UniProtKB/TrEMBL annotation, chain A:
It is found in: Cell membrane. It is a multi-pass membrane protein. It comes from the Bacteria. This is Probable membrane transporter protein. Keywords: Cell membrane, Membrane, Transmembrane, Transmembrane helix, Transport. Its main location: membrane. InterPro entries: TM_pro_TauE-like, TSUP. GO terms for cellular component: plasma membrane. Belongs to the 4-toluene sulfonate uptake permease (TSUP) (TC 2.A.102) family. The lineage of its organism: Bacteria, Pseudomonadati, Bacteroidota, Sphingobacteriia, Sphingobacteriales. The keyword Metal-binding does not apply. The chain crosses the membrane at residues 7-40, 46-67, 79-96, 102-119, 161-185, 226-246, 253-271.
From TrEMBL, chain B:
The lineage of its organism: Bacteria, Pseudomonadati, Bacteroidota, Sphingobacteriia, Sphingobacteriales. Keywords: Membrane, Transmembrane, Transmembrane helix. It comes from Mucilaginibacter xinganensis. It comes from the Bacteria. Pfam families: DUF1634. This is DUF1634 domain-containing protein. The chain crosses the membrane at residues 15-36, 72-96, 102-120.
């Protein structure tokens, strides 16, 4: 296989990864790593590096749009980034000492978990009881809706912070955005409205990924010839996805397709990790 | 006029978009050069060896980019892409300074310090 054919295959694969990722809101990294490692037999270290860069690109691209709408809670994002960047740095350092087999198995487990989460029903919740720490940190805010701004409060700041640190470790270790874990921290633990938690998570992913990418860059995980088609493909896919999303009402069946594809990939990663084929 | 959250938000939106467009343009340009020169060689990513030394060192990376080496140009674009979210934190720190929200100036600086530590620790371990 020549470099041109290899590049074209990755471009097409990454395009679909980006498309699926943006339609389901889970990011393209979860599909990129199995595509590169299982199908194209790329070493998982290079795959992690390429995935991280694509995560940064999609986060910056979509965050730019969300931030302007004023839904993102910037103070909350900045405060929680302390936890995610510290976690990401530790994860990137740990990655060197953990055998690739275990990384593959852990990746499979996180994939399964993300697939289950993507099927969860999402109901908008508004909490207004005040918490001392949230008030001190000025985390309570409002977001715009068609019926005017909605005020919301933030709960359990400590619990959310710990969960964010964990999301950061996973992101640094596996080269994904761990958007699913970030959303759990904000939406299940801190009780933040769904729209705010997804956009704020998206906004944070770029910074988290950058914190581990600077480590990987120096370790030679980020290989230009491989990263180039991955980033370009994912970005175009995500762009198409965001256009489709505006025009469709129901994404229910899509979530099922995504969950099934991801579960299958998860099984493959775990199997290959256990048999040592990765 | 008082500096508000919405001003910071529109500034950050611009930083993110501009950084992304410029870096992707550079990656794309480098990619074309890379495929033109190396399109028919055999890719080798099966065994992890790291990247060639000329891409690792800032001096030689810049030198190779000026010689229009595709891989070096792609790598520059990627570095700029990685720097974009970090720049975003820098700009929000400035925004919080203008808003006189010193608690958040401090919080943003902690985030920057962690990223900086991460940068310095890359070669260790």
């Amino acid at each position: 296989m020549s470099v041109i054919i290899f590049t074209v295959i990755i471009l097409i694969g990454s395009y679909f990864a980006g498309l699926l990722g943006s339609l389901t809101g889970l990011g393209g990294g979860v599909v990129i790593i199995p595509l590169l490692t299982l199908l194209l037999k790329v070493d998982i270290h290079y795959a992690i590096g390429a995935s991280l860069v694509s995560v940064i690109a999609t986060s910056s691209g979509s965050a730019a749009a969300y931030v302007k709408e004023g839904i993102t809670n910037m103070r909350l994002g900045m405060f929680l980034e302390i936890a995610t960047t510290a976690g990401a740095m530790c994860g990137a350092m740990l990655a060197v000492y953990i055998p690739t087999q275990y990384i593959a198995i852990l990746f499979g487990v996180i994939l399964l978990f993300s697939a289950i989460l993507s099927l969860r029903k999402k109901a908008e919740q508004i909490i207004t009881e005040k918490s001392y720490l949230a008030a001190k940190l000025k985390l309570n805010s409002s977001y715009p809706t068609a019926a005017g701004p909605v005020e919301y409060s933030v709960r359990n700041v400590g619990g959310g912070f710990v969960m964010m640190a964990f999301a950061g470790v996973i992101s640094g270790l596996l080269g994904i955005g761990s958007g699913a874990l970030k959303v759990i921290a904000m939406d299940t633990i801190m009780r933040i409205p769904f729209k705010v938690s997804t956009t704020t998570s998206n906004f944070m992913i770029g910074v988290t990924a950058s914190a581990s990418a600077v480590v990987y860059l120096q370790r030679g995980y980020i290989s230009p010839g491989l990263v180039m088609p991955v980033v370009i493909g994912v970005l175009f896919g995500a762009f198409t996805g965001s256009k489709i999303l505006v025009h469709t009402k129901s994404s229910g069946w899509l979530r099922w397709v995504f969950a099934i594809v991801v579960s299958f990939l998860a099984g493959q990663m775990i199997y290959n990790g256990i048999t040592g084929n990765i | 006029m008082k500096f508000k959250d919405t001003d910071i938000q529109s500034l950050i939106g611009k930083v993110l978009r501009t950084g992304m467009i410029i870096s992707m343009g550079i990656v794309f340009f480098g990619g074309i050069l890379f495929l033109y020169r190396h399109g028919h060689s055999i890719p080798n990513y099966k065994v992890f060896k790291g990247i060639p030394p000329f891409l690792q060192n800032t001096g030689s990376l810049l030198h190779a980019s000026f010689q229009l080496k595709g891989q070096a140009i792609i790598q520059l674009g990627i570095i700029l892409l990685i720097a974009t979210p970090i720049l975003r934190v820098v700009f929000s720190t400035l925004g919080f300074v203008l808003e006189k929200d010193y608690l958040y100036v401090g919080i943003s600086m902690v985030v920057l310090a962690i990223i900086f530590t991460s940068m310095l620790s890359g070669h260790a371990g």
